[in-house]
TrEMBL record, chain A:
Catalytic activity: pretRNA = a 3'-half-tRNA molecule with a 5'-OH end + a 5'-half-tRNA molecule with a 2',3'-cyclic phosphate end + an intron with a 2',3'-cyclic phosphate and a 5'-hydroxyl terminus
Lineage, broadest ranks: Eukaryota, Viridiplantae, Streptophyta, Embryophyta, Tracheophyta
A molecular-function term among this protein's GO annotations: tRNA-intron lyase activity
Name of the protein: tRNA-intron lyase
All residue ranges annotated as the tRNA intron endonuclease catalytic domain in the record: 120-203
Top-level taxon of origin: Eukaryota
Known EC number: 4.6.1.16
Organism of this sequence: Ensete ventricosum (Abyssinian banana)
Pfam families given in the database record: tRNA_int_endo (PF01974)
TrEMBL record, chain B:
InterPro entries from the UniProt entry: tRNA_splic_suSen54, tRNA_splic_suSen54_N
Keywords: tRNA processing
GO BP: any one term: tRNA-type intron splice site recognition and cleavage
Protein's UniProt name: tRNA-splicing endonuclease subunit Sen54 N-terminal domain-containing protein
């Protein structure tokens, strides 16, 4: 199947999305949270954040975290990259341990890195896509690191299955996709769930991954991989997203 | 045809591997025979051992508009071009001493990989050609102009064709470097060798593992912004018929995804893809 543009989940959803740009939602979220800098409680690799109604609404709209609201409060469960994105990327929340002691940036960074070796690259990839106004969610269900949506997942199907490939000095530090069966597997899987396969090469020239500052030295390169089917491409219309988008 | 009923409706899905069913009686079960059209008009070619190409002595039919290269007013074909036509009965190849070289012998010539084409690259060539694509080896101009007018005329891509051939020779010496195999044009009945325009993409045939990011980047730099596709011929799947190529043809598109926001449109960094939203 050639995927050429967003697949909206309902009539008029494209207009809804157009009227509510994601960049605006995220910047309102930041404005709403940053005066109070609410505290999220870290537990293992997730953080729980109690949010005011306005902020809760914006977190919902931005599709950050998961609303696990119980009676009498709006509580969001944030994954590692999401927590760090709110903490570091948007600098609009604080994070503390369960005992209430606030966590410094470097401590938090170490904490997440120790939980998952590729946290720096995953976070870089997440914030990279977020900065381009894509909505990013976990891609585990789709055999990928992330899936990227053009807008809120309630409005539109994800367009990209995202695989993050960490690199050191230009060499992939994992063997992911380095053999044809792996590549075809990912391609075929993402095709059958109607996603385009997006590879993010996250590379760093510095060895030092111990501090948050090393984030600035990461570069991200995007590449799309698709199967090309000669039988269906004779008219040359294979990629342009001009039709079919509706 | 060969597939059982309702399956054909699976439109948009990736095609399933389809095996020839040896338990069905044969008439409907030979996709290849139904496709092949033997020609009543047969052209003649003579193999030039030194050039490693066939010179076309008699041409019949319209395929010559998109097959072969012109040098000094003569039409020459690479081995894959000759074989493709010979398989279809459209050309008869003879050796310099006038003996006919039959299709089986041409197969052997290709298998020797002596003439710049491997069996895999022939399979790819045949697959694309049988779908109507116009295919020529990368770095080989369709025509050669006289040196003097070389730099003055036509499309920009034609201008450096001579330089191309030379740089191509140099590239051949660097063994490990990836290099495009074919330039491919979409099916086009108005195609002219004298002004072919830019190919719609370059095809790079790979035999080992998928290319690394840096290999892809280096190749892109060499290819003047022409789109690249990578092709891997998988021999595990060719039981359908000897002539059916189930190559896994892959595309890697250079870059993508500019920022999005629903204000306007989505620009892809390389400028080649512009997705408008509504």
């Amino acid at each position: 199947m050639e995927l050429t543009g967003p697949r909206w989940k309902g009539k008029g959803f494209a207009d809804t999305a157009l009227a509510n740009p994601m960049s605006e939602i995220v910047s309102r979220l930041r404005t709403s949270l940053s005066p109070s800098m609410p505290n999220a409680l870290l537990s293992g690799c997730i953080a729980l954040l109690d949010a005011e109604p306005e902020a809760a609404d914006l977190l919902e709209r931005a599709s950050i975290g998961q609303n696990i609201t119980t009676f009498g409060g709006q509580c969001f469960q944030l994954g590692p990259v999401e927590s760090f994105y709110l903490y570091h990327g948007l600098t609009c929340i604080r994070i503390s341990r369960e005992d209430g002691t606030a966590m410094a940036e470097s401590v938090l960074w170490h904490h997440f890195c120790s939980q998952r070796k590729t946290f720096p690259e995953l976070y870089k990839a997440y914030s990279h896509l977020r900065s381009k106004n894509w909505v990013v969610r976990s891609g585990t269900q789709y055999g990928a690191d992330f899936v990227a949506y053009r807008h809120h997942p309630a409005l539109v199907h994800a367009e990209y299955a995202v695989l993050v490939i960490p690199e050191n000095d230009g060499k992939a530090s994992s063997t992911r996709l380095s053999a044809w069966p792996d590549l075809c597997c990912s391609l075929r899987l993402s095709g059958s769930v109607a996603k385009t396969l997006l590879i993010l090469y996250v590379s760093s020239c510095s060895r030092d991954r111990s501090s948050v500052c090393s984030l600035d030295e990461f570069t991200v390169e995007e590449r799309i991989i698709r199967r090309w089917i000669p039988e269906r491409s004779r008219e040359g219309k294979c990629l342009a997203g001009d039709d079919e988008a509706q | 045809m060969a597939r059982s009923g309702g399956r054909g409706a699976k439109e948009g899905e990736e095609e399933e591997e389809h095996h020839r069913n040896p338990f069905l009686s044969n008439s409907i079960n030979k996709p290849w025979t139904s496709k092949t059209q033997f020609r009543s008009e047969v052209s003649k070619a003579c193999w030039d051992e030194e050039m490693g190409m066939g010179e076309i002595m008699e041409k019949k039919g319209s395929m010559w508009a998109t097959t072969g290269i012109i040098r000094n007013g003569k039409l020459y074909c690479h081995i894959e071009e000759i074989l493709f036509l010979a398989e279809r009965g459209a050309v008869i190849l003879t050796s310099a001493d006038g003996k006919t070289i039959n299709v089986g012998d041409i197969y052997k010539m290709i298998l020797g990989s002596k003439f710049g084409s491997s069996w895999e690259s022939f399979e790819v060539y045949r697959h694309l050609k049988s779908l109507g694509y116009i295919v020529q080896r990368y770095g080989i101009p369709w025509t050669l102009k006289n040196d003097i007018i070389c730099c003055s005329s036509n499309s920009p891509s034609e201008n450096n064709t001579r330089c191309f051939e030379i740089s191509n020779l140099l590239q051949d010496m660097q063994i490990s470097e990836l290099k495009p195999t074919f330039k491919v044009y979409l099916p086009n009945s108005k195609f002219r060798k004298s002004s072919p325009g830019d190919p719609s993409f370059l095809l790079c045939l790979l035999s080992g593992n998928p290319p690394s990011r840096s290999e892809v980047e280096n190749l892109e730099k060499k290819c003047d912004g022409l789109p690249l596709k990578f092709c891997y011929v998988d021999h595990g799947r060719e039981d359908c018929s000897a002539h059916k190529l189930d190559a896994c043809v892959l595309v890697m598109i250079c870059s993508l995804m500019g920022g999005i926001d629903l204000w306007g449109e989505i620009r892809h960094d390389d400028g080649s893809l512009v997705f408008c939203l509504l």
